[in-house]
Design goal:
Distance between the termini: 39 Å
Strand order of the largest sheet: 3-4-2-1-5-6
Order of helices and strands: HEHHEHHEHEHHEEH
Bound molecules: 3-methylbut-3-enyl trihydrogen diphosphate, magnesium ion
Strand content: 5-15%
CATH architecture: 3-Layer(aba) Sandwich
CATH topology: Undecaprenyl pyrophosphate synthetase
Oligomer: single chain
Number of helices: 9
Shape: globular
Length: about 250
């Protein structure tokens, strides 16, 4: 189905599809707990939701989809949970190659990927290379990502540029700051979705979401569906974005 066909069928206005959607995928642990299951089962079910939402995003014609998969703070979870998340990530990077190739999706990452276990990094770099030529959508996984760490890293590069005389302090502007972030090659998110009801940002894309529209749903990530996603996108299309201009 073409993206226009899907947007029309779903009641979406093809002219107002957000270019960049970012999602804080939260609630896997609670989903498992409700069912008296191990948290890992929640993460496994959550990985299935990722596939559903990636596919829907591509069909709708979203150009950039950014998913918060693992935060810098998440390293502090139990060793067993971290290991399970790494195993699931590695698995996802292999099993979804076919989907990414069929749908012309390029994989990308933001975050301190050098902190990932070596076998995960090897698999990641294979999938990044495999999908590098794809053009219809960029799927960015935030892996070991924290916005404050990202900003610190940017400040270091800017400070070095000044110290070594490549730029003057006065010439630093918003563009230079944006260029120092992992997200330098993408537009800012138009829409930020968080599942499972928490009204917080949890160190995600602090600079980039300055004017993003926010959508928070109580639905836990493993239960988040294509239908609810479309409903959020419809709601987004009715909003008036003002960017501070009257
Ligand atoms: C989101 O679900 C997945 C990750 C943070 C990796 P959680 O694991 O945070 O689930 P809750 O918030 O405990 O329900
Ligand atoms: C944010 O969720 C990180 C990811 C979705 C990967 P968390 O569950 O880690 O955030 P808090 O603990 O609710 O702030
Ligand atoms: Mg959580």
């Amino acid at each position: 189905m073409s993206s226009d066909a899907l947007t029309t069928q779903s009641g979406l206005d093809p002219a107002k599809v957000p270019r960049h959607v970012a999602i804080i995928m939260d609630g896997n642990g609670r989903w498992a707990k409700q069912r008296l299951m191990n948290r890992v089962r929640g993460h496994e079910k959550g990985a299935e939701t990722v596939r559903t939402i990636v596919t829907a995003s591509r069909e709708i014609g979203i150009a950039f989809l950014t998913l918060y998969a693992f935060s810098t703070e998440n390293w502090q979870r139990s060793a067993a949970e971290v290991a399970a998340l790494m195993r699931l990530l590695k698995n996802f990077l292999v099993t979804e190659r076919d989907l990414m190739m069929r749908h012309d999706i390029r994989l990308s990452t933001i975050g301190e990927v050098e902190r990932l276990p070596e076998d995960v990094r090897a698999t990641l770099s294979e999938t990044l290379s495999l999908t590098a030529g794809n053009r219809s959508m960029v799927l960015t996984l935030a892996l070991s990502y924290g916005a404050r760490a990202e900003i610190v890293r940017m400040v270091r590069t800017v400070a070095t540029d000044v110290l070594e005389g490549r730029i003057s302090a006065e010439s630093i502007d918003e563009k230079r700051v944006s260029q120092g972030l992992y997200t330098r090659d993408m537009p800012d998110p138009d829409l930020l979705i968080r599942t499972s009801g928490e009204m917080r940002i949890s160190n995600f894309l602090l600079w980039q979401i300055a004017y993003s529209e926010l959508a928070i749903t109580k639905t836990l990530w493993p239960d988040f569906s294509r239908e609810e996603y479309l409903a959020i996108l419809q709601d987004y299309q009715h909003r008036e974005r003002r960017f501070g201009i009257a």
